[in-house]
């Protein structure tokens, strides 16, 4: 007798619309939704996760593209990194395109999705600081209808996904404003971020918004540094800053993200990380204002 | 990655001249397994299957050092689907084994000495059942303080009945009182590189009706593995057969005995075939790594930059077991001063036992670590004397006839100066140009954070050397059989094709000698005569030599009757394209006609001249052959982020003779890329003896974007008269030399000492002046 029971194909559902997917999740509360599977299937293959059932999202065409809605872009959660990296998308949301292009090797970018990046919420998720800096929101489809909440509320666990809910869309305000994403990996080939910085200069609201990824479990927003540097910019004029101001901004951001411990000297690794964040923030601001 | 081979030279000519299918020595004969490997149809050990097979799982220690109080397997045995559980109590033969010294238990019984040491193994009818059962084995540990600092191993409690000092070589050469006008000192560290074969360990054990067992594994040294297995199973060697399957990458001794031995024991116990496929984590924990090394150096030179004396202390971390560590130490001590003429050399070398992950044979062991250190010292001397780094090296290069610090005279070609000159005089790669900065590949990669203003370019040189074949009296014999029948030749040789290209070389040799194009090389197993390990360029030398001799014997058998019939000597007949012709053209016949349906067989051996063990002062003729390499690295460093991109590695290498230009270029590219991994990213971290992140995310390997342009600027073809074909094996010496060259280039770009490999970003950052 064998203890080996072949996994039945019936355990995988392949809905072709969001409604069907939500219904499938409601039918099988233990089912796990899977899009690109770049994180999930690695856990399954290594035996860390044995989902009772899978709901494959790959056939839901409505979440694999994007559309415009009231001055914002409504991005399907099933958009792949490869798709976001293309020039037409880059013209729309340059920072997100840059983040998508820097995420892993081509095989991963072809499979991995924006929604997966948010749902797995890895500290090194490349899209996450961009979404935080752009103040994106997510639209969740659930058995009781849709609801929308800021992406940061989802990431911090302030307002987590409820049972049966599915990440459907990401709403990103379209800004006619410079935005940058920079990532340090310590190597030339694709790698996980040591630190990443997304920065947006928003003249409409006279704001600079900056978000630092990979240094903490969720992207960090150095709000004081943002306000300080926004106050230095001549919004009605050239919108340039002296190099010293950019440098000081970098130091400010780095100190906010990797704070001093009172009475303790920072370990060398933290000093290096702070230096990296400072250089990235300074470069990001410089490029956004250039 | 691209490669540029510069002409004029035999390489450029043969690559350019594509007239018909290449065959014979010196031609770019393609490998027969290249296509199936590229298409994914080539079978590896993990693809094996047998009817009714069971799956094995190995229970490994979660602690680096602990006493085992109790092992209770009853829960595992009682699980449905579990067919056998084996521990140290179930080893019928020798409980201890090892490649050089039998100091490693098959299963830990009283103590565990490293994280991941096998304790028990399970066979079950499903891999998950086997894994769950292994997890259900209850082991009560008494955790002990691990010894993880090799410097503390000397004074620590013995971790093993054999003691903590595995070998000590105090090399003394010349006058200890000699001093130079200029003295530089340095402390260097080299991390733990993992061979990280692209396919993890896997195998299948099949019990035989005669009570023996067959092991289907990707072994690189099948006969040694068989002998270890037979001793452990308590069987005669001829009742254990190791069959070599497709080898998915090998940088040293490929297979982990912690997998082969449990597999065989489980197959013998259950009477069923048993299969095991290691996870990537197990692969990192189980197999041998490169020795982490600590090196202290003091170089003395005169005012002209000529070396006077080198003093060094070299400390290798062997991990818990001896394995091939004494070989690594011998190489480290003998090559501690590098391919330079130094009249006085004093090196203290130690290799010690710790509770760190096990170290063993990884390509270029010993030589890699010292190369990083002595080249760091050469850069320091150059800086102190205000000399160009290439110039100071040029003033000290070794040549044929010079003495190594071991007292051995270099009798083989040693064109070190010529190699250095070739890389020094090669054109430098152009700086990125074009207005579109986004198209530049800066450190940090595509769409990375690189900023041209923060990037500094550096150029660095390194000279490396490595010995060929096993050293210190190892019997480096190989045996091969060649058969010819019906116009087709067959080679039977237990030399394992690991991807290094031995089967292609064997085909070329037989094509050359027998003039037949259709040559098959049979898969290796231990029913064939031994050919030894696939390491240190052995198969190019001894197995290639044995194939050549066997083919020549077949040739003589084939031509002798013909020559006798026509009253001429065999030497006056030539074979080409399946035709036999005499020197005067009078005789012309075909191989097939001459054979007349007969089969001809010949078996021959190749055994190089014997060597000595290094004596109490590190003296002795320990090496059969040496090979040299010069590398010039050009790097771009982002001095704020510490990101390094290697732009180009220019390589000049001493190859004796080019046997296959295509394979040669591939081996050099592979070698320098492995060296780049050691230089920039590969270090298996094991704080307090616990391996951290044993996976390919935590242990990054160079990708196509990390790999630089590899430019082979010169292949020096000065034949080594004692080697078959005069050829030198090429794989190891680029691995040895490239990390040191990259470190030298980063040093030049940043002005930082760069005395640690891999180079961490913080070591390549130029700190802003403190206000």
From TrEMBL, chain A:
Domain (FAD-binding PCMH-type) ranges: 5-177
InterPro entries, sorted: CO_DH_flav_C_dom_sf, Diverse_Substr_Oxidored, FAD-bd_PCMH, FAD-bd_PCMH-like_sf, FAD-bd_PCMH_sub1, FAD-bd_PCMH_sub2, Mopterin_DH_FAD-bd
Domain of life: Bacteria
Keyword Flavoprotein annotated: yes
Keywords noted in UniProt: FAD, Flavoprotein, Oxidoreductase
Upper taxonomic lineage: Bacteria, Bacillati, Actinomycetota, Actinomycetes, Kitasatosporales
Keyword Cell cycle: no
Any Pfam family hit: FAD_binding_5
PROSITE patterns per UniProt: FAD_PCMH
Protein name as it appears in the record: CO or xanthine dehydrogenase, FAD-binding subunit
Organism of derivation: Actinacidiphila yanglinensis
Gene Ontology terms, MF aspect: FAD binding; oxidoreductase activity
UniProtKB/TrEMBL annotation, chain B:
Domain of life: Bacteria
Gene3D superfamilies: Aldehyde oxidase/xanthine dehydrogenase, a/b hammerhead, Aldehyde oxidase/xanthine dehydrogenase, molybdopterin binding domain
Pfam families for the chain: Ald_Xan_dh_C (PF01315), MoCoBD_1 (PF02738), MoCoBD_2 (PF20256)
Occurrences of domain Aldehyde oxidase/xanthine dehydrogenase a/b hammerhead (ranges): 39-145
Spans annotated as Disordered: 1-24
GO molecular function: iron ion binding; oxidoreductase activity
Name recorded for this polypeptide: Xanthine dehydrogenase, molybdenum binding subunit apoprotein
Cited PANTHER family: XANTHINE DEHYDROGENASE (PTHR11908), XANTHINE DEHYDROGENASE SUBUNIT D-RELATED (PTHR11908:SF157)
């Amino acid at each position: 007798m064998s203890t080996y029971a072949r996994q039945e194909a019936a355990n995988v559902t392949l809905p072709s619309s969001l409604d069907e997917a939500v219904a499938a999740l409601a039918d099988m509360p233990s089912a796990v939704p899977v899009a690109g599977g770049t994180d999930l299937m690695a856990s399954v293959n290594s035996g860390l996760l044995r989902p009772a059932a899978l709901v494959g999202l790959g056939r839901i065409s409505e979440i694999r593209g994007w559309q415009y809605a009231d001055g914002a872009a409504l991005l399907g959660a099933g958009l792949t990194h490869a798709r976001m990296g293309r020039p037409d998308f880059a013209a729309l949301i340059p920072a997100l395109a840059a983040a998508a292009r820097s995420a892993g090797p081509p095989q991963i970018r072809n499979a991995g999705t924006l929604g997966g990046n948010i749902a797995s919420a890895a500290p090194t998720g490349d899209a996450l600081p961009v979404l935080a800096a752009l103040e994106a929101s997510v639209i969740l489809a659930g058995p009781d209808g849709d609801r929308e909440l800021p992406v940061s509320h989802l990431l911090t666990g302030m307002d987590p996904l409820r049972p049966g809910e599915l990440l459907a869309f990401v709403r990103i305000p379209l800004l006619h404003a410079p935005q940058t994403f920079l990532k340090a990996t310590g190597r030339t080939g694709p790698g996980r971020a040591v630190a990443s910085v997304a920065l947006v200069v928003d003249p409409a609201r006279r704001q600079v918004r900056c978000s630092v990824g990979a240094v903490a479990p969720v992207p960090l927003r150095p709000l004081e540094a943002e306000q300080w540097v926004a106050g230095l910019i001549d919004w009605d004029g050239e919108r340039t800053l002296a190099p010293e101001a950019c440098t000081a901004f970098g130091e400010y951001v780095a100190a906010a993200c990797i704070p001093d411990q009172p009475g303790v000297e920072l370990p060398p690794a933290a000093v290096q990380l702070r230096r990296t964040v400072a250089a990235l923030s300074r470069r990001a601001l410089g490029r956004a204002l250039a | 990655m691209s490669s540029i081979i510069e002409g004029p030279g035999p390489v450029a000519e043969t690559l350019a001249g594509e007239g018909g299918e290449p065959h014979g020595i010196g031609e770019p004969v393609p490998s027969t397994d290249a296509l199936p490997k590229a298409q994914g149809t080539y079978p590896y050990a993990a693809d094996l299957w047998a009817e009714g097979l069971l799956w094995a799982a190995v229970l490994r220690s979660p602690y680096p050092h602990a006493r085992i109080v109790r092992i209770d397997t009853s829960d595992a045995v009682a699980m449905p689907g579990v067919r056998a559980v084996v521990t140290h109590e179930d080893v019928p033969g020798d409980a201890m084994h090892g490649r050089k010294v039998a100091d490693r238990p098959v299963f830990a019984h009283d103590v565990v000495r490293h994280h991941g040491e096998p304790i028990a193994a399970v066979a079950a009818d499903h891999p998950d059942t086997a894994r769950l059962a292994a997890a259900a084995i209850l082991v009560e540990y008494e955790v002990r303080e691990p010894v993880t600092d090799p410097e503390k191993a000397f004074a620590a409690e013995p971790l093993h009945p054999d003691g903590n000092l595995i070998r000590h070589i105090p090399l003394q050469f010349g006058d200890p009182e000699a001093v130079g006008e200029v003295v530089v000192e340095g402390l260097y560290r080299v991390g733990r590189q993992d061979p990280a074969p692209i396919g993890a360990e896997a195998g299948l054990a099949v019990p035989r009706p005669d009570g023996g067992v067959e092991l289907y594994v990707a072994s690189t040294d099948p006969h040694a593995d068989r002998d270890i297995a037979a001793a452990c199973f308590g069987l005669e060697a001829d009742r254990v057969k190791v069959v070599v399957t497709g080898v998915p990458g090998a940088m040293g001794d490929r297979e982990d005995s912690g997998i082969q031995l449990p597999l065989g024991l489980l197959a013998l116990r259950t009477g069923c075939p048993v299969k095991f496929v290691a996870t990537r984590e197990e692969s990192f924990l189980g197999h041998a790594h490169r020795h982490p090394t600590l090196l202290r150096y003091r170089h003395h030179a005169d005012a002209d930059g000529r070396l006077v004396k080198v003093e060094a202390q070299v400390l290798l971390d062997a991990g818990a077991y001896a394995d091939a560590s004494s070989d690594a130490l011998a190489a480290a001590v003998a090559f501690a001063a590098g391919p330079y003429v130094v009249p006085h050399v004093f090196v203290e070398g130690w290799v010690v036992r710790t509770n760190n992950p096990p170290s063993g044979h990884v390509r270029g062991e010993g030589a890699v670590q010292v190369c990083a250190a002595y080249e760091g010292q050469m850069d320091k001397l150059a800086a102190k004397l205000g000399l160009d780094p290439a110039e100071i090296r040029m003033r000290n290069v070794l040549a044929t006839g010079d003495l190594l610090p071991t007292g051995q005279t270099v009798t083989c070609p040693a064109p070190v100066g010529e190699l250095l000159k070739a890389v020094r005089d090669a054109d430098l790669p152009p700086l990125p140009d074009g207005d579109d900065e986004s198209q530049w590949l800066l450190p940090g990669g595509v769409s990375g954070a690189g900023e041209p203003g923060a990037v500094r370019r550096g150029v660095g040189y390194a000279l490396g050397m490595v010995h060929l074949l096993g050293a210190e009296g190892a019997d480096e014999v190989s045996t091969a059989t060649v058969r010819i029948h019906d116009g087709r030749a067959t080679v039977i040789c237990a030399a394992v094709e690991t991807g290094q290209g031995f089967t292609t070389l064997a085909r070329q040799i037989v094509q050359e000698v027998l003039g037949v194009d259709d040559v098959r090389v049979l898969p290796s197993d231990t029913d064939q005569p031994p050919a030894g390990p696939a390491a240190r360029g052995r198969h190019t030398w001894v197995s290639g030599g044995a194939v050549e001799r066997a083919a020549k014997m077949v040739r003589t058998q084939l031509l002798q009757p013909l020559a006798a019939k026509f009253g001429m000597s065999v030497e006056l007949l030539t074979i080409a394209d399946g035709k036999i012709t005499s020197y005067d053209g009078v005789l012309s016949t075909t191989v097939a006609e001459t054979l007349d349906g007969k089969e001809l067989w010949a078996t021959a051996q190749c055994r190089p001249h014997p060597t000595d063990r290094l004596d109490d002062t590190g003296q002795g003729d320990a090496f059969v052959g040496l090979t040299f390499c010069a590398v010039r690295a050009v790097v771009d460093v982002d001095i704020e982020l510490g990101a390094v991109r290697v732009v180009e590695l220019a390589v000049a290498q001493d190859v004796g003779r080019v046997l296959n230009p295509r394979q040669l270029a591939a081996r050099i590219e592979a070698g320098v890329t492995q060296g780049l991994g050691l230089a920039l990213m590969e270090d298996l971290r094991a704080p307090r003896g616990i391996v951290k992140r044993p996976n390919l995310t935590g242990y990054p390997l160079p990708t196509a974007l990390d790999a630089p342009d590899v430019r082979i600027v010169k292949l020096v073809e000065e034949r080594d008269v004692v080697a078959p074909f005069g050829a030198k094996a090429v794989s190891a010496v680029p691995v040895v030399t490239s990390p040191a060259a990259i470190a030298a280039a980063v040093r030049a770009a940043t002005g930082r000492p760069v005395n640690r490999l891999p180079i961490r970003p913080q070591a390549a950052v130029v700190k802003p002046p403190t206000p």
